[in-house]
UniProtKB/TrEMBL annotation:
The chain crosses the membrane at residues 26-47, 59-80, 100-120. The keyword Membrane applies. Pfam families: PMP22_Claudin (PF00822). Belongs to the PMP-22/EMP/MP20 family. Keywords: Membrane, Transmembrane, Transmembrane helix. It comes from Characodon lateralis. It comes from the Eukaryota. It is a multi-pass membrane protein. PANTHER family: EPITHELIAL MEMBRANE PROTEIN-RELATED, LENS INTRINSIC MEMBRANE PROTEIN 2.1-RELATED. This is Lens fiber membrane intrinsic protein. It is found in: Membrane.
Amino acid sequence: GLWRYCVPGKCMTHTDSIAYWDATRAFMILSLLACFIGIVIGIMAFIHYSSFDGFDKTFAAGILFFLSSFFVLLAMAVYTGVTVNYYGKRYGSWRFSWSYIMGWVAVVLTFFSGIFYMCAYRMHECPRNSNSR
């Protein structure tokens, strides 16, 4: 995991400060922040919250979800690449756990959330553009 690693029989915290651990943690935290802000803006868009009428909230939520997906993808790529080379060679029985799979599921879900918000943006904009002619 990001905070500790387990081999058969025991789990230990990461005591070494390797840059890829810090990079993976930072990308995951940035992804979490972008996703949280995207959720808040998305909810404000669908309850017709009148503040910040100068920008389209569905478009902003979609961009934030795409950004979150990109950060999770970067974190998982860094984690996968370095971890396989580091632990895979040292421990023969080492494997990824459920949290690793959840990280890749998060990439897919945040990406599709961005697509759905962009679809909502397009559906909201199309009637507005056709009435202006």
